[in-house]
Specification:
three-stranded antiparallel beta sheet, Aspartate Aminotransferase, domain 2, 14 helices, Aspartate Aminotransferase, domain 1, seven-stranded mixed beta sheet, alpha/beta, binds pyridoxal-5'-phosphate
Length: 397
């Protein structure tokens, strides 16, 4: 029998808080020389490190153009603009708010479509059903690093003559049918922020094989200025600083080992949690590889004995940080609910939002930490009735 959970007064499994994510960055000594060179050159932006990083990424992803930008969000805004999108864009609601926020900044109307319950990614048939006469694009997401159904989505896009764009914020290190995600669709837009596998601080990459789109993004990230100060489009400043590009070059060399390590942590979680009733795992299709930007589980309260929120409270008492990505889903968020008719059927999105829990994972996580998280989940399940009663009691006080 497991020891009683911390929520019932026992010592927490972890003495210090276990974060849900942690950036893994190079040691200072390995960067010192190049950092000094950047400082001495006085060229903090638009210098050789951005160009070198772009070239490395283009080779890594096997795309013609990799454009460094200030964030995935600005990259999405520029991509939507560069494609000349108008009217409606089909998008999942089960995504991070930035996917949809960038659409609104480009003056587009989100049409929310449901996701596949098993993969958590945009369901190609739901995307097709959501297409309106005003639709100009489909935006899909590789949720938590799990590759979207790219071929099926491309078929829908081709049939209806709309663009396919990938919000690939979580996608560095993910493989679709054995190849890096990036060359598929009109463009892939990646994030390089602190919770990702490839971390530069803040930053993004737009990957595309289309010369025209690349040229427009180059201008768009420079205020819309082609160089003669007579702006051709209303652009923004979305440049990546040299320091960030330097971190990116070092990080890219370690990406593969980061993905492998995260996959081993994911295997450990699956193996240790799979015997507990009511826990579901994200399905990664055969032939694909998730980079496991996040490791998510779902909780079926009837089978597990606790709701997702009750389990979350038990884990918090054990000093384990979690996330509920994405609850609330975007179509229920204040800024976007006006784009969701009240009778909009998104049953899988709603179910996932109520059941999902993201557990700690990072690129050099000690396996003993993941094991400790599993023990915490196991003991919460074993003492489910007492845990629920304690939470009820605390709520009443
Ligand atoms: C799916 C998704 N899209 C876009 C973003 C925004 O990325 P950034 O912070 O680089 O703008 C995020 C952030 O994590 C995300 O999860």
């Amino acid at each position: 029998m497991a020891a009683r959970p911390a929520l019932l007064g026992q010592v927490p499994i972890f003495e210090k808080k276990v974060p849900v994510a942690k950036p893994v960055v190079p040691e200072f000594d390995g960067l010192a020389q190049e950092l000094t060179q950047i400082l001495q050159s006085g060229m903090l932006s638009k210098g050789p490190h951005v160009s070198a990083f772009e070239q490395m990424v283009a080779e890594h992803l096997a795309v013609k153009h990799a454009l460094a930008v200030s964030s995935c969000t600005s990259g999405l805004m520029l991509t939507y603009q560069a494609l000349g999108l108008t009217g409606d864009v089909v998008v999942p609601s089960f995504t991070f708010m930035a996917t949809v926020g960038a659409l609104r900044w480009a003056g587009l109307r989100p049409i929310f479509a449901d996701v596949d319950l098993a993969t958590t990614n945009l369901d190609p048939s739901a995307a097709e059903a959501a297409i309106t006469p005003e639709t100009s694009a489909i935006v899909a997401v590789h949720n938590f690093g799990n590759p979207a159904d790219l071929e099926e989505l491309q078929q829908v896009a081709d049939k209806h003559q709309v663009h396919l764009i990938l919000d690939s914020a979580h996608g560095f290190g993910s493989l679709y049918k054995g190849e890096a995600v990036g060359p598929q669709g009109a463009a892939h837009v990646f994030s390089l922020s602190a919770t990702k596998l490839l971390v530069v601080g803040e930053g993004g990459i737009v990957a595309t094989n289309d010369d025209e789109i690349a040229a427009r993004i180059r201008i768009g990230r420079e205020f819309g200025n082609c160089g003669d100060y007579d702006s051709v489009v209303p652009g923004i400043n979305a440049r990546m600083p040299e320091f960030n590009a330097l971190l990116g070059q070092h990080g890219l060399r370690r990406l593969e080992s980061a993905v492998r390590h995260r996959n081993s942590i994911a295997d450990l979680y699956r193996a240790q949690l799979s015997f507990l009733p009511g826990i579901g795992f994200q399905k990664v299709r055969d032939g694909n590889r998730s980079c496991y930007k996040d490791f998510s589980i779902t909780i079926d309260a009837d089978a597990f004995g606790l709701t997702r929120d009750e389990l979350n409270a038990a884990l918090t008492a054990e000093n384990i940080e979690t996330r509920k990505y994405y609850d609330p889903p975007v179509h229920r968020q204040i800024a976007y609910r006006r784009f969701a008719p009240p009778d909009l059927p998104l049953p899988n999105t709603e179910l996932l939002a109520s059941r999902i829990l993201n557990l700690p994972i990072w690129s050099d996580m000690d396996p003993s930490v993941a094991s400790g998280v599993c023990v915490a989940i196991e003991r919460a399940h074993e003492f489910a009735d007492a845990v629920r009663a304690e939470i009820k009691q605390e709520t009443l006080v």
